[in-house]
Model the fold of this input.
Amino acid sequence: MSDGKLVGIVLVSHSAEVALSVAELARGLSGSGVAVPLAAAGGTEGGGLGTSSELIAAAAASVDRGAGVAVLTDLGSAVLTVKALLAEGDELPAGTRLVDAPFVEGAVAAVVTASTGADLDAVEAAAAEAYTYRKV
Done:
């Protein structure tokens, strides 16, 4: 468990609308408990499809409460952009982690888990476990 600080979550998509919608879904499904610091970083600064280092860094800074930041991504270049930011070392808050999880299911699991006050390891594990959710 954390020391009262909540893990922040950033959802990175190639589409601003997709990132915002998944954030809204995850927040809505997490119940009426604690409001998890959650930000969407979708698309480019100009509103197009793509990913933006600047938008991702700003989103991560906005959700950082000192307990770490979990970043979930949708597709390939979003992953590469976050990896590049992590490699630079000073663009993202300390304790920022790229989480290997399905985008929608992982986001819901991460937000629900973070709302309990769980630490970054537990949030990451819950999001990653979403890979095992079967639909049939």
User: Anything to note?
Assistant: The first helix runs from residue 16 to 29. The chain has five helices and four strands. Helices lie at 16-29, 53-63, 76-88, 103-114, 120-129. The CA atoms of residues 52 and 62 lie 15 Å apart.
